[in-house]
Specification:
The protein is of the alpha+beta class. It is about 20% helix and about 20% strand.
């Protein structure tokens, strides 16, 4: 807010604390002697001219300058044995040197540039800032080995293939490409980006296979058009691979995601498979987990492992635990049996035969876990928020009126819509409770505002 004009002495409010005097009047800066008598040191109604005289040591009154615009007040009584304030040469200027003391206690000079409408409390201004979830980047690696033709077809059967949006035939491949296509086109993926590759790569028949760090389709903004590059790529591929080079697929995921990580966006890898590693080289599941762990420790990029019917889920879980992801319960939202190796919790995701509705919900759950609903609290340019007065408002569809989201003390207290701090003493983030997070992530136009309460000076 710009500096306010000075109108009259009646417009000033004075606070006297322990012999200190603060006088607020728009942009007026005022010093005080220990006896509470103010000395005006500047004013926006016009400055002291170059001819202004200094107050005398006994506290005489300074004269108005003769060559500048007349200031709001003349210099008031100075402290004993101290010089009064000399007028500056420039209009409205403030002298660079002030040394007014009384009994060893320095007087206060305070410049206030805040609202002046309704009393001293106006110094506390509620600041509203828009909060946004981090957008997500993902590199998806899809198993195209012959077993993806099952269960309704023999390996490599042409009839097991289908296009996104066409009638779904009884194959894991057809269900998987439809699920990915449905997610890529969905509003839930708005502002995310996806890159796509397959293993084994088409035309790469030697071991080890090369090039998995280069996607078949690079990072593409979502949601994707029905004829977009991601959908077209899914339509062109088929389950024709003769081996399962999981080791090389993981190295490719690691290579691309590390190089493509973008500031302000969350990067993840997603590995989708129905089998176990059988070539290039044949790593143990713990060996693959170690590769994923090293990548996560070095980059902070997690790898999500999605298994389909045919996978050995106990082994897949060993690999998934190395990916740096959080474990999840067996029941997540509308999903049941998300852990193929038992009742959970687990780190892998089981989508069974790839039913698109189940698969898409799993992808949404992964998105929620990867991005979360944590919003950094912006640091004010001055002062500090009163953490007891911070509020969170949600505008469905981005339109008013906003809904006030209730605050809870911790994640353990989440039982519906709500939010909590990452640290109640020194918070840096506002976290939405899972129910609220799901609601916001399902609303691409959602608007979240943080009201930062009272900013102290």
């Amino acid at each position: 807010m710009g500096r306010q004009p000075l109108y009259s002495a009646a417009n000033m409010r004075t606070l006297i604390l322990s012999g200190l005097c603060l006088v607020f009047a728009g942009s007026l800066a005022i010093g005080c002697s220990g006896d509470g008598d103010p000395e005006v040191v500047s004013g926006t109604g016009g400055g002291f001219g170059s001819g202004g005289n200094a107050g005398t040591a006994s506290g005489g009154v300074g004269n108005l300058g003769g060559t500048g615009n007349t200031g709001a007040f003349a210099g008031a009584a100075g402290a004993a044995a101290s010089a009064g304030y000399a007028g500056s040469a420039a209009n409205g200027g403030v002298d660079a040197s002030i040394d007014v003391t009384d009994a060893g206690l320095p007087d206060v000079v305070f410049s206030y540039d805040g609202p002046t409408d309704s009393g001293f409390g106006d110094a506390c201004a509620e600041t509203t800032v828009a909060a946004k979830l981090k957008p997500l980047d993902m590199y998806v690696m899809l198993d195209r080995s012959g077993s993806m033709s099952e269960p309704g077809f023999a390996w490599y059967a042409d009839a097991s293939d289908c296009n996104v949006g066409s009638a779904i035939v009884d194959s894991k491949w057809c269900r998987a490409v439809n699920a990915l296509g449905q997610y890529f086109k969905s509003s839930a993926a708005t502002n995310n980006r996806a890159a796509l590759q397959y293993f084994p790569r088409q035309g790469v028949s030697t071991c080890p296979g090369a090039g998995y760090g280069t996607p078949a389709v690079g990072l593409t903004a979502l949601p994707s058009a029905a004829n977009g590059s991601l959908i077209s790529s899914l339509n062109l591929e088929a389950p024709k691979g003769t081996y399962t080079p999981t080791h090389d697929a993981i190295l490719g995921l690691n290579s691309f995601t590390a190089a493509a990580k973008t500031s302000g966006r969350e990067m993840i890898s997603i590995l989708i498979t129905d089998g176990k590693p059988n070539s290039c080289p044949v790593n143990t599941d713990s060996g693959l987990a170690g590769i994923l762990t090293s990548h996560f420790n070095a980059t902070g990029i997690p790898t999500y492992v999605i298994g389909m019917t045919g996978a050995t889920f106990a082994n897949l879980e060993v690999t998934a635990k190395g990916g740096g992801t959080k474990s999840h319960p067996d029941k997540v939202g509308t999903l049941n049996d998300t852990c193929g190796d038992g009742a959970g919790p687990c780190n892998h995701w089981n989508v069974g035969n790839g039913d698109p509705n189940v698969f898409v919900e799993a992808l949404k759950a992964i998105q929620q876990q990867a991005v979360g609903c944590s919003m950094t609290i912006p640091k004010p340019s001055q002062g500090a928020p009163d953490w007891n007065q911070v509020k969170v408002e949600y505008s469905p569809g981005g339109t008013p009126p906003p809904v006030l989201v209730p605050k809870v003390s911790s994640a353990a207290q989440c039982a519906g819509d709500g939010w909590y701090y990452d640290n109640n003493t020194s918070p840096t983030q506002v976290n939405l409770c899972p129910t609220m997070c799901t609601k916001v992530q399902g609303d691409p136009q959602a608007k979240i505002d943080l009201l930062l309460g009272c900013l102290g000076s």
